[in-house]
């Protein structure tokens, strides 16, 4: 089972902290291998003292370039919606623990996780659609369920929770943020990016009339919507669970990987 450890998290009570560390101790006593220390995680990707929405987006946009050599063989699979969420979570877990991703075992595990992740995402998607019919308040609830949708693969990979337990944990994670980072990460910044891209698109198509611009625009939109958004979901999840005073971060990687 995948386990993520927390210590002294803000907005998380002592009972939750004790529970997570008790899980880690229990798995250690059973001989379950844990890898990775917080100090070994690449500091170029995160400033753990202030992981704001903008830094999450910058890291997500640069992720595939920074780690191109390690993940280029996975690229066709990184373009498959939903499936790539679990795959990105697995890749990030290995890369930031200084492990070289192994193609066949990683894909096999992503396939194994896919039905559970799809089930949780489908539940949150249906809830968001239903709430979308409710004026005003439904918009808020719908946005919350979409944020929960983004947490599904990470809860499955890093905490081993699926089904009802996984759905509840996704909801609890989103509830941890009262600073507005969720809104900035999943709504404000992407809206500004698409507005800027649309302005550039209109400028080059109407004024300069470049015929290739629509195809470039479509390619960039798809890139942002599928692989980049998957990385963004995981980085946002890690920004919540590591928080400010996390001393150790463990993630269990199955022995086959």
Task: Write up this protein.
- By secondary structure, this protein is mostly helical.
- It contains ten helices and no strands.
- The longest helix has 30 residues, at 213-242.
- It is globular, with a radius of gyration of 19 Å.
- The model is unreliable at 1-14, 32-49 and 243-257 (pLDDT under 50).
Outline the secondary-structure elements:
Layout: H1 14-29, H2 53-66, H3 68-71, H4 75-78, H5 83-95, H6 103-131, H7 137-159, H8 163-176, H9 181-207, H10 213-242
Helix pairs in contact: 2-9, 2-10, 5-6, 5-7, 5-10, 6-7, 6-8, 7-8, 7-10, 9-10
Number-wise, the strands total: 0
Residues in β-strands, percent: under 5%
Low-confidence stretches: 1-14, 32-49, 243-257
Number of helices: 10
Largest sheet: none
End-to-end Cα distance, whole Å, is 14 Å
Q: Averaging pLDDT over every residue, what do you get?
A: 76
């Amino acid at each position: 089972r995948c386990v993520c450890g927390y210590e002294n998290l803000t907005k998380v009570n002592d009972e939750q902290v004790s529970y997570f560390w008790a899980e880690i101790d229990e798995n250690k006593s059973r001989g379950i291998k844990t890898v990775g220390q917080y100090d070994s995680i690449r500091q170029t990707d995160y400033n753990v003292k202030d992981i704001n929405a903008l830094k999450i987006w910058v890291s997500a946009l640069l992720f595939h370039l920074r780690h191109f050599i390690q993940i280029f063989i996975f690229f066709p699979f990184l373009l498959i919606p939903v499936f790539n969420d679990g795959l990105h979570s697995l890749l990030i877990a290995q890369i930031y623990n200084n492990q070289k991703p192994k193609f066949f075992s990683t894909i096999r595990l992503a396939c194994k996780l896919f039905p559970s992740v799809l089930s949780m995402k489908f539940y949150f998607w249906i809830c968001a659609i239903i709430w979308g019919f409710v004026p005003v308040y439904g918009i808020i609830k719908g946005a919350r369920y979409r944020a929960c949708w983004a947490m599904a693969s990470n809860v499955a990979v890093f905490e081993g929770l699926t089904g009802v337990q996984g759905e509840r944990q996704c909801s609890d994670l989103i509830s941890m943020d009262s600073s507005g980072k969720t809104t900035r990460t999943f709504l404000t910044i992407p809206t500004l990016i698409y507005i800027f891209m649309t302005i550039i698109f209109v400028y080059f198509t109407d004024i300069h009339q470049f015929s290739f611009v629509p195809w470039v625009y479509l390619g960039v939109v798809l890139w942002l919507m599928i692989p980049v958004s998957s990385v963004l979901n995981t980085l946002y999840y890690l920004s919540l669970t590591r928080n400010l005073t996390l001393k150790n971060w463990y993630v269990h990687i199955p022995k086959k990987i």
